Amino acid sequence: MDPNGARFRRLATELGTLLKGLELIVQEGRGAAAGWPADREPPRPEIRSAGSILHDFYTAVENIFRLIATELDGGVPTGA
């Protein structure tokens, strides 16, 4: 068995799991935004909730790129 093939299959499996989680976050964001009034700004608690969902989205994407960098390049760049 090709060790690199196994490595890439493992990476693909892990990425698939992370992408499913990301899709759930996107669905949550869409669901939250669907209830917002079209003619005025959403209430402040809903805006803060959207900020939390956006943070979760950013963190999920960051984790995906970190996993790719670690598997393919041995880690993320350091320093400035």
Tell me about this structure.
- Helix content is 78%, strand content 0%.
- The termini are far apart.
- With 80 residues, the chain is mainly α.
- Helix 1 runs antiparallel to helix 2 (44-73).
- The chain has helices at residues 3-34, 44-73.
Concise synopsis of the structure shown:
The chain is mainly α. The protein contains 2 helices and no strands. Helix 1 (3-34) runs antiparallel to helix 2 (44-73).
Helix-residue proportion: over 70%
* Radius of gyration using CA atoms only: 18 Å
Please outline the major beta sheet. none
- The proportion of strand residues reads under 5%
Q: What form results from the Cα inertia axes?
A: elongated
**Strand tally, please?**
0
Order of helices and strands: HH
If helices are DSSP runs of H or I spanning 4 or more residues, what is the number of helices? 2
Helical/strand content category = mainly alpha
- Contiguous low-pLDDT stretches (5 residues minimum) are none
Q: Give the N-to-C terminal Cα separation.
A: 40 Å
Mean pLDDT across residues: 90
